[in-house]
Design a protein that fits this description.
The protein is an alpha/beta fold. The chain is 29% helix and 22% strand. The protein folds into 2 domains: 144 residues, 3-Layer(aba) Sandwich (Rossmann fold); 205 residues, Dihydrodipicolinate Reductase, domain 2 (2-Layer Sandwich), CATH 3.30.360.10.
C-alpha cells in the first residue's frame, strides 16, 4: 500500500443528523472542561441536556445558568444521587470530574445503563482502568475516552503514513513535548493536588502524546517501563508561572509530577522513548520521531499541546536508491467543526448505533498502563513489567 497525499482528503460532506429522537444528556462535574462539553452539545440538534451534578453545592446550577440552558435538574449531591433519579430517562453522560473521580463516576454511570464520554486521562491507575472496562463490558453501552486530537486530519495522516508501509517495520518511537512554563493553576488547584488529580503532566498532556504515536502504530501492548518523574518547579514557591499572590500556597499543595520521562518496551520489538513537561528550562523536548526500516517520520513539536502537529511533517526515505525527503503539508483546520465538536458528534453517533466508538477503552487501557507504569517504576527506582489482566 503506497503512501499518497491528497490535500482534499479531509473535505467530507457534512452528514444530516436525525433529530427524531434526542439523546438525553447529563453532565457529571461542572468545572472548566465541562464548558467545552456543553458548548458542543448545544450545537447538536439531536441533544437534550437534562441534568447535571457537582460535589460543590450550587455549582451545577450556576454552570447551566451561565450557559443559558434552562430546565436542567441539578439538585443532586453527587453522581450517584443523580443516577438514582430515574425520572430523568438519561441516555448518556459526560464525565468531567477531576481525575480521581473518573473511575468511580464512570463505573456508576455504566452500571446505571448509560453511555459514557469520559474525559482524559481515563483514570489514575491501571487497576481503575480495568474496573471501568469490566463495567463497560457488563453494561453493553458505549464508552469513549476524550482524546479529540485523534480526530484532527493531521493526526489521521500520521496513521495513514504508517499504515501505508512507507516507513517499513517500526522499531523506535520518540515522543513527548510540553511547556516551558505551563503548570495549569489558573483553574484552581484540582490539577496540582494529589487528592484530586493523582497525575500531573503525565495525565494532562502526556496521555495525548502517547495516543498520537500509539494509535499510529496500532497500539501495541506495553511490556516493560523504566520511568522517572519530578516536581521541582511545582514545589518551588518562586516559580514564575504561579500567580504572585498564590505562589506559596500552590507550592505547598503541589503533589503531582511536572516532568516525566520513560523508556518503554512494546510488543513487536518497538522501543518508545517518552518525555513530557508542564515546566522545564528549554523550549521543547524535541520533535516526535517514528523510525522504520524503510523510512523515518519527523513530526514537529508544538510550543504547547494544541491537538495537532507543529508544522509540515517530513518523511526521510530512499527513492530509486537516492536519499530524499518528502514534505507532508499541514492539512488546514476544519472551519465548520472544531475537534471538540467532532468528539461530541462522534460520541453521539456511536450512542445512536450509526458510528464506531471514536476512542475505544481497549486502546486507552494501554495508554493508562504506560502512565501508571511510569509512576510505579519511579517509586521503586527500576524497570518494571507492565501487567495487564485479561478482562
Amino acid at each position: 500500500m503506497a503512501f499518497n497525499y491528497d490535500p482534499n482528503s479531509a473535505n467530507t460532506a457534512k452528514a444530516a443528523v436525525d433529530t427524531s429522537k434526542k439523546v438525553r444528556i447529563g453532565i457529571v462535574g461542572t468545572g472548566w472542561i465541562a464548558d467545552a462539553h456543553i458548548a458542543s452539545y448545544k450545537k447538536m440538534a439531536d441533544v437534550e441536556i437534562v441534568a447535571g451534578c457537582d460535589l460543590i453545592p450550587g455549582k451545577a446550577k450556576a454552570f447551566f445558568e451561565k450557559h443559558g440552558v434552562a430546565g436542567v435538574k441539578t439538585d443532586y449531591k453527587d453522581c450517584d444521587d443523580m443516577l438514582a433519579d430515574k425520572s430523568l430517562n438519561l441516555d448518556a453522560v459526560s464525565v468531567c470530574t477531576y481525575n480521581r473521580q473518573h473511575a468511580p463516576c464512570a463505573i456508576s454511570c455504566l452500571k446505571a445503563g448509560l453511555h459514557v464520554l469520559l474525559e482524559k486521562p481515563m483514570c489514575v491507575t491501571t487497576e481503575e482502568a480495568v474496573e471501568i472496562i469490566r463495567a463497560e463490558k457488563a453494561s453493553g453501552k458505549v464508552l469513549s475516552i476524550g482524546f479529540q486530537p485523534r480526530l484532527d486530519e493531521n493526526m489521521k495522516m500520521i496513521k495513514k503514513i504508517v499504515d501505508s508501509g512507507e516507513l517499513g517495520k517500526i522499531y523506535y518511537v520518540q515522543t513527548g513535548g510540553g511547556r516551558r512554563r505551563g503548570i495549569p493553576t489558573p483553574f484552581g488547584t484540582t490539577f496540582i493536588e494529589d487528592k484530586t488529580a493523582g497525575l500531573g503532566a503525565l495525565g494532562d498532556i502526556g496521555c495525548y502524546s502517547l495516543d498520537m504515536v500509539l494509535n499510529a502504530i496500532g497500539y501495541p501492548k506495553p511490556l516493560t517501563v523504566s520511568g522517572y518523574k519530578s516536581d521541582f518547579f511545582g514545589k518551588d514557591s518562586n516559580y514564575c508561572g504561579y500567580r504572585a499572590d498564590n505562589r506559596a500556597e500552590y507550592a505547598k499543595l503541589f503533589g503531582v509530577d511536572d516532568f516525566a520521562a520513560a523508556f518503554v518496551r512494546l510488543e513487536g520489538g518497538i522501543i518508545l522513548d517518552f518525555r513530557i513537561a508542564w515546566a522545564m528550562n528549554i523550549d521543547t523536548t524535541g520533535d516526535t520521531l517514528i523510525l522504520g526500516t524503510k523510512g523515518g517520520l519527523r513530526i514537529p513539536s508544538t510550543e504547547c499541546w494544541n491537538g495537532t502537529v507543529g508544522g509540515a511533517m517530513k518523511i526521510y526515505h530512499e527513492v530509486c536508491g537516492q536519499q530524499t525527503v518528502t514534505e507532508v503539508p499541514i492539512i488546514p483546520e476544519d472551519k465548520n467543526m472544531s475537534l471538540f465538536d467532532k468528539k461530541i458528534r462522534s460520541f453521539l453517533d456511536a450512542c445512536k448505533g450509526i458510528g464506531p466508538v471514536p476512542v475505544p477503552s481497549s486502546q486507552i487501557l494501554y495508554n493508562q498502563a504506560i502512565i501508571d507504569g511510569i509512576a510505579k517504576s519511579h517509586a521503586v527506582g527500576k524497570e518494571i513489567e507492565i501487567n495487564i489482566p485479561e478482562i
